[in-house]
Fold this protein.
Amino acid sequence: MKYTFSKLIRDPLTIFILCGTLVFVFYEHTLKDKRQSILLSKEAQAKLVEDFEAIRGKQASKEDRADIVQSYFIDELFFQEALEQELHLYDHSTRSSLIDIMHYRISQTIEEPSDAELVAYYANNIADYYTETTYSFTHVFFNSLPDNTESYVSQLNDKNLLTGDNFVHGNEFSNVTIGLLSGVFGEGFSTRLQHLSLNQWEGPIQSNYGVHFVRLTEKQMPHIVPFSDIKLRVKEDYIQHKTDQAILRKYKELKAKYEPTIEA
């Protein structure tokens, strides 16, 4: 009997089976029990039920509560698996969302500014609070260049009323900026308009639509917008400025933890 047992434990197949059994037992009683725990607390359950009832407008039944719990764990397990697969490192939208959250959290650390701080910021950045130059003009439009354009200009300056083709945006424009003019008529038109003399018909001027004879009637130069009129905008600019500074400080702090490297 002793001889048989001694021979058995030296047999390679027996050793293989024993090792396999030990590995299985070790996994079942050690590794298997080390699965990550995902807790749904009583407070979280109550909040989920509260949100469900607010949206559905009814009291959650027993079946509803079971579905709520299952939905939570479905989402949570998929989220954990996504992290395990490091999807947040490769999916652009997820990466952008996480970065936005970091920026938002930093912005929430900025204290509410006082009126004195806003006035000081406004004064120190006054160049940002000027109006744009605006232009008012009237024009006669043609789909294509007419004959005797010189005579058109002369007749218009002699206060003769001339009509051209119908223009989709009308023939009178008041207090429009160069940006708006460029968007409607094109950059060539807006550039030429800036150099016209007041109350003189000039043309033809080419646009995205055709040609125009134009009379510039008013040009309002930039002026400072009073603080009281743009306090909200100044506050938004102030908070954005402080947020940008906080982000830069955080970046310098993180550089001590990570080493940004640019591949040559």
